[in-house]
Write a structure and sequence with these properties.
Rossmann fold; five-stranded mixed sheet; 13 strands
């Protein structure tokens, strides 16, 4: 793996550190006395040596109080993060979450109670934290991160993600990089701390826009969702998951046509559960439950409270260091493997020049010359570093296949069975857009044995 070798600690450019990691201007700070300057020099030397300042220093308290921080997600990780930030001393916290509280959340999302079921996670979490930690202001938003514009995100000094959605992570990652304006770094350069858990495993990382690797750079590290062959789920199901896949992949479109089920709608999940349960009985299969149905269609991996606590603690520790500059921050990726013991591994994940978000080179696809347009679409879905769902394809002069609008989709639909070579030549570029990809991707086409 790239970046596994030991390297010198990365230091953030001083100008960017000063502009983004504290909201105190020169005018707002008291005039420096010789003793202040000496203390500052000593502190900088300590930071370089890895020695943190005293935790009760007044300047640390001020930095935490002045730092406005955004938490994205108020679920298993989000609850831990909100609690940690408030108890650490952060006073200005905002939280975004589009989900409502479900009974299954209560075993680990400790800011919620049974009376809160059906309510907004962000709203309830904000009220709970403020009721327990005097002086902290938590501002909630019940909705999607895509609802907010650049001006909203520019108000924060730090952003922490506690998401369970790859699509949402890709979107906010692209947003913070897209926002960077070299002429206005103070308002546009926002460090992102990302945490994620998967059973007994987890990761925490720091993304410094345009400096470190971004989330898109590490897309190929993600484990692919479990899939089942269509022939198995249609003819010879053996597992409760097969029955659920049958209900969602085959039975739902047969009954409801082009209507898409909503994984956050209890009525839709219940319909799938009932259909899967009926099919399971036909084949004498046990184990189909509502929660399993929800887990399969949403690709949910069972959450473990201790893993959430460890990863949230790591994220908040990095937020503290970035906000106060008392110690070097993580460089830049930490992995936790709780199934092998209490074990963590830290390494510097390298930037990828061909990353569509932070890189400056295009990706290359080496294909057989008899590849069809539909096969290219399947290739982009399977490729670990793109993982696209419904890509649209076009060149500089023509549309090859477009998902939308409907009229253009109908016009390009016959192209799916045509050879890709009818539209592009060796070395030409295809522009790929997809709902899962927050930016367009330039794909250079080359032919094998050309």
């Amino acid at each position: 793996m790239e970046g596994n070798k030991r390297q010198e600690p990365m230091t953030m450019p001083e100008s960017k550190r000063q502009k983004t990691l504290t909201s105190l201007s020169d005018e707002e700070m008291a005039p420096a006395t010789p003793s202040d300057v000496d203390m500052q020099d000593a502190n900088e030397n300590n930071v370089e040596k890895g020695i943190i300042d005293t935790l009760d220093a007044s300047k640390i308290k001020i930095a935490l109080e002045e730092c406005k921080i955004l938490v994205i997600g108020a679920g298993g990780l989000g609850c831990e993060i909100l609690k940690n930030l408030a108890l650490t001393g952060f006073k200005q916290i905002h939280v975004i979450d589009m989900d409502t509280i479900d009974l299954s959340n209560l075993n680990r999302q400790f800011l919620f109670r049974k009376k809160d079921i059906g309510k907004s996670k962000a709203m309830v979490a904000a009220e709970f934290v403020m009721s327990r930690v005097p002086g902290v202001q938590v501002t909630p938003y019940f909705g999607k991160i895509q609802d907010k514009d650049d001006e909203y995100y520019k108000q924060f000094q730090l952003i922490i993600c506690g998401l369970d959605s790859v699509e949402a992570r890709r979107w906010i990652n692209a947003k913070i990089i897209e926002m960077v304006d070299e002429d206005d770094m103070e308002h546009t350069w926002k460090p992102l701390i990302d945490g994620g858990t998967e059973g007994f495993k987890g990761q925490a990382r720091i993304i410094l826009p345009t400096i470190t690797s971004c989330y898109e750079c590490s897309l190929d590290m993600l484990s692919k969702p479990t899939t089942f062959p269509i022939c198995t789920i249609a003819n010879t199901p053996r597992l409760p998951e097969h029955c659920i896949e049958w209900a969602s992949v085959l039975e739902w479109p047969r009954v409801w046509g082009s209507k898409k089920y909503d994984t956050d709608n209890p009525e839709d999940i219940n319909w799938l559960y009932q259909q899967a349960l009926t099919r399971a009985k036909q084949f004498n299969i046990t184990g189909v439950t509502y929660s399993l149905t929800q887990g399969v269609v949403k690709n949910i991996i069972p959450a473990i409270a201790s893993t959430n606590a460890i990863i949230a603690a790591s994220c908040c520790n990095e937020a503290y260091k970035l906000a106060t500059c008392v110690a070097p921050h993580l460089n830049n990726y930490m992995m936790y493997t709780g199934d092998a013991g209490v074990y963590t591994y830290t390494f510097e994940h390298q930037k990828k020049p061909e990353c569509p978000v932070c890189g400056n080179e295009s990706k290359t696809a080496e294909l057989d010359k008899d590849t069809t347009v539909s096969q290219l679409i399947e290739y982009l879905a399977e490729r670990s570093d793109t993982q696209l769902k419904k890509p649209s394809l076009r060149t500089a002069t023509k549309s090859i296949y477009m998902q939308a609008p409907k009229a253009l989709n109908q016009a390009t639909l016959p192209n799916l069975d045509k050879l890709l070579s009818e539209f592009v030549s060796e070395g030409e570029y295809i522009t790929v857009t997809d709902a899962a990809l927050p930016v367009s991707l330039q794909l250079k086409i080359t032919w094998k044995n050309a």
